[in-house]
Amino acid sequence: MARSNEEVEALLREYADLLLITGGDAYRARAYEKAARAIGGHAADISQFDAKALRDIPNVGRSIADKVVEYLRTGTMPAVEEARAAIPAGVRELTAIPALGPKKAMILYEELEISSIDQLAQAIEDHQLRDLKGFGPKSEENILHGIGLMRAAGNRIPLDEAMDVADDIVSALSKVPGCRRCAYAGSLRRMRETVGDVDILVAAEESGPFMEAFTRLPLTSEVIAHGQKKTSIRTTKGLQVDLRVLPLDSWGAGLLYFTGSKAHNIRIRAIAVRHGLKLSEYGLFETKSGKTIASRSEEDVYARLGMDWIPPTLREDRGEVKAALEGQLPRLVEESDLRGDLHTHTNLTDGLESLEDMIAKAERRGYAYYAITDHAPKLYMQQMTEEKMLAQRERVRALDRGRRRGDTRLLHGVELNIDVDGDVDWPPDFLEDFDLCVASVHTQFGMDRKAMTRRLVRACENPHVHVIGHPTTRLIGKRPGIDADLDEVFATCARTGTALEINAHPDRLDLSDENILRAKSHGVVFALDSDAHSTRDLDNMRYGVGMAQRGWLTPDDVINTWSLTRLRRFLRKDTGHQPPT
Ligand code: DGT
Ligand code: CA
Ligand code: CA
Ligand code: ZN
Hints:
Blueprint (H helix, E strand, L loop, with lengths): L2 H19 L4 H15 L10 H5 L6 H13 L3 H8 L3 H7 L6 H11 L4 H9 L11 H17 L3 E2 H16 L6 E4 L1 H4 L4 E2 L2 E6 L4 H8 L4 E7 L3 E6 L4 E7 L4 H9 L2 H13 L2 E4 L2 E4 L5 E3 L3 H7 L15 H6 L14 E2 L13 H10 L4 E7 L10 H16 L7 E9 L10 H4 L4 E5 L8 H13 L5 E2 L17 H11 L2 E5 L9 H9 L4 E4 L11 H10 L13 H8 L10
Parallel strand pairs: 4-7, 11-12, 12-13, 13-14, 14-15, 15-16, 16-17
Antiparallel strand pairs: 1-3, 2-4, 5-6, 6-7, 8-9, 9-10
Bound molecules: 2'-deoxyguanosine-5'-triphosphate, calcium ion (2 copies) and zinc ion.
């Protein structure tokens, strides 16, 4: 995606944070944040935009547009540089801790001269924070928890960031003369929710030109190791990337080995040994003679071990090897199986783009149906009302009536808020006229387990709630999931015919792979949704598909792969939800 948009988004966000740290106007900081989001999510590349074109983007005013133009022209934004200079780097690092935030970070710096995460952890241990104004024992606990989350995430990178880097590198190296194959492997190919480092493989006779090109990529900021077989770099954003060049003959074996996981590799190596064979990144060999049995393609290697080819998303040693030996691998859901998206927003609430633009993009994605599910009134900042919702419905219905055969059909839905008691925004007679209701937890994430379980169970029991949105509400690396008895929630979903969402936004990926597996064992069905707030977000579906595959889901498990007729039958929840087979 357009790099300028991303860079400007990051800068404006940073500026908003800096404003808050220095005690600046919160309203002004919010304006910068909104503009950051709008530019980051803007469909067109802004690198050639002038101030006027920038001001046409929603939430971008004159002063912000001017700053962005200056940045695009000179490569720096003086306002940000000045703000940065006024604040120690360590304090900015503190603001990244969930539960702390800019204002409190500045207090810690001014009162206790804390300017690093280690110093902060020490201060908490010494109980220095509880006597500060605005802090207390509970906030010490919360901050410590936030530090823990951040450290647990380690230096792992969100899936989408790693994917963007990998796509760039693969496309650059594929153009180097002599390239026979180029692909990414490792945890990224397995679509893990976060990625430690990116592993790239090239098949070619000579490695030199690839290593050279790799170290000279625009995104390379540091060369960690430079060799003939393997070169490692760090990108400008701090992500490590390993490149390995192998002969075309061992492509399959190399791809298999470097895709992992390690546990999967160990499992299949043991099978090789039982066959009197040896498996390495170079190939499958006869142990005694050293003769090559297979190496050119993954399919060959698996086949010679008596297995079906195993999709990378399953290679976690969770029973896939046994299933492959028995010919029992599931037919995994793929992006092309999806016939629609059931959770999306427009600029009627916090989406960035209009109903028409979102629908046009859905059309381009080839969807048979598309649900618009803007926020409901209890999320106050969205300023939703019954009137606005009904007016939107009229527009959706009118647009839908104008559809031709083969066009995307439109469903009018809503994303309801599950309150602490498990109730939602509107009474049954109002909910009844939506085609689809997603219900999500957006507030009070800290309720105790028993109350939280009850809250979700009650929402599932609501005959008008069809899908539970981002069920655990986690934000990867930032906010833990809610504490609830998920087995009880999953069982309730199965009993009531409520689908659980797999939210494809890379910050959420909620449910996670492990929770999907658990939910599936209860007999739950799933909605694989983008939760898009911009046309670009609709393409995040690939990450949700990755999670669904990691959870062993087939098309039949995912309600938005179904025909519209079957889906509509499912949505008549109260009158018998049993999906036909
Ligand atoms: P990451 O980078 O932490 O997200 O996870 P991976 O799975 O990408 O791990 P990485 O980058 O250390 O190595 C890539 C693959 O190479 C890994 O999935 C399996 C393979 N591999 C690496 N080291 C070993 C090893 O010691 N034994 C075996 N069997 N395979 C290994
Ligand atoms: Ca890796
Ligand atoms: Ca690696
Ligand atoms: Zn949403």
